[in-house]
Automatic annotation (TrEMBL):
PANTHER family: INTERFERON-INDUCED PROTEIN 44, VWFA DOMAIN-CONTAINING PROTEIN-RELATED. It comes from the Eukaryota. Belongs to the IFI44 family. Residues 1-175 form the TLDc domain. SUPFAM superfamilies: P-loop containing nucleoside triphosphate hydrolases. It comes from Mya arenaria (Soft-shell clam). This is IFI44-like protein. Pfam families: MMR_HSR1, TLD.
Length: 447
């Protein structure tokens, strides 16, 4: 059986290991051989250097390299060639290598433990884990970089999405391969953008240059965010603001305490460090499912621009033309130009049926106003094209900004802006054509 490690991953790993081309032979796979420490040791002990790779449902790929034999003899073992790595985060290439700072505890050889790195740094699983109904495995280990391995200021969540649920764990024997020449690094890096400072400033500049179409009379795009309570809508807004300010922003109230739960419709402009505003507003909404009043009727009014900023939703009363502050004839500028559905990737399997129904209704309501979501399953469940689904990670516990977080959020934001731009260009040209047609009629009338 071929493993899930791609050629590109192998090229990246052999660069990290060093000393020329390597071949990778699959020794152990939890989906093929069962997830048990005994099986891991039966297949992987005394096989020389190995790579252990984990793949998760969010599309992240990370793992650890051991430069010496795995054994079942117990105790810590020195390995200054060992490292923990990340290759992909949420489907986007994010390459990081975390080397030991205390190599004397680089590996642990426990007969009831799988590949075990540091104390505790990266410990996939203990004993035996049974497979979940959906084919994933909820590993009982953890990723907590920083004790024996350097964390390079990358948070654990930015590697494993805050969860030890995996779709696969594989171990490969690594040996020198003189028959294969490695792909030059340059070629690999060009295929997809590396999320580094340079890329972040390039994409931030590009985003600042996207403006509503001329003739639309609109100064800023309205990007509406909807989703269940606690999905991360307010955090997403703060995270989007952060790369433009070069610090973590906390303007939108985050959290589940009663004063932090969003009850109002609030539109947030985004400022650059110099003070000027970008050409879009992020519109925060109350969460679906907390008696917040976010049902199909109210969402429809919101999409069409009948609701003013700071409007407080009520569960007991629907919005109507009699609601104080109701915008009777909203202009195109007041409508939602793009709708982003924000979902928490760790609870996507458990969304209540009523929430799914409402999200589906919302998609139908939004029609050409295209929709965003954060995980692949949503693409299927809601019938949204996969290239409109963007996994992102918000700031929630970090102290400092992170390049990978900025990269993912800016890529998602760019897609939202392009969707809004396309929708508005279509509307504006349709209006212009309408006006031309009217002008023709007037001329012939007066002739
Ligand atoms: N692990 C993790 N937690 C997050 C993320 N985004 C938000 N959170 C946390 O989830 C909780 C709810 O977030 P919030 O933005 O208030 O959700 P909202 O109700 O949709 O606005 C807060 O405790 C956040 O710190 C994320 O990307 N990863
Ligand atoms: Mg909120």
């Amino acid at each position: 059986m071929a493993g899930k490690l791609t050629k590109e991953h192998m090229n990246l790993l052999e660069g990290m290991i060093g000393c020329g081309p390597k071949s990778f032979k699959l020794l152990y796979s939890i989906t093929r051989d069962g997830c048990s420490a005994a099986e891991f040791h039966r297949k992987c002990d005394n096989q020389g250097p190995t790579v252990t790779v984990l793949l998760n449902p969010q599309g992240s790929v990370y793992g650890g390299y051991a430069g010496i034999n795995w054994k079942s003899t117990g105790g810590f073992t020195m390995d200054d060639t060992a490292f923990i790595f990340q290759l992909v985060f949420s489907g986007i290439r994010v390459v990081n290598i975390f080397r030991p700072k205390d190599a004397s505890k680089a590996l642990y050889f426990g007969c009831n433990r799988s590949a075990w790195f540091g104390n505790p740094d990266f410990e996939p699983f203990l004993n035996t884990i049974s497979v979940n109904k959906d084919g994933t495995f909820s590993l009982n280990g953890r990723l907590t970089l920083g004790t024996c391995y350097n964390s390079n200021n990358v948070s654990n969540d930015a590697i494993h999405n805050g969860s030890m649920v995996v779709t696969e764990l594989e171990v490969y024997a690594v040996s020198a391969d003189d028959t294969r020449t490695s792909t030059p690094k340059q070629t690999t890096w060009r295929k997809t953008p590396a999320l580094n400072e340079e890329y972040i400033s390039k994409i931030a500049e590009e985003l600042a240059s996207i403006t509503p179409p001329r003739g639309s009379g609109i100064t800023d795009f309205r990007l509406l965010l909807v989703g269940p309570v606690g999905a991360g809508k307010s955090s997403f807004i703060n995270t989007v603001m952060s790369p433009f300010a070069d610090r973590i922003i906390n303007k939108a109230a985050v959290g589940t305490s009663s004063q932090n739960v969003t009850r109002k419709y609030i539109t947030y402009p985004v400022r650059k460090t110099g003070g000027s505003c970008l050409n879009f507003r992020l519109c925060d909404t109350p969460g679906i499912g907390d008696h917040s009043g976010m049902d199909a009727v109210n969402i429809n009014f919101l999409l069409d621009g009948h609701v003013h900023s700071s409007f407080e939703f009520s569960y007991s009363r629907h919005i109507s033309a009699k609601t104080p502050g109701f915008v009777h004839r909203p202009s195109l500028a007041e409508e939602a130009h793009c709708v982003g559905i924000v979902l928490d990737s760790s609870t996507i399997h458990d969304l209540p049926a009523v929430t799914m129904t409402l999200l589906n209704e919302l998609k139908n309501l939004a029609l050409e106003k295209e929709v965003k979501a954060v995980v692949d399953q949503v693409s299927e469940a809601l019938g949204i094209p996969p290239n409109h689904v963007f996994p992102v990670k918000n700031y929630h516990s970090e102290m400092e900004t992170e390049v990978a977080v900025h990269g993912l959020v800016l890529i998602a934001l760019r897609k939202m802006l392009f969707i809004a731009l396309d929708a508005l260009e279509e509307r504006t040209s349709a209006n212009e054509e309408g006006q031309e047609a009217n002008a023709d009629v007037t001329e012939s009338d007066t002739a």
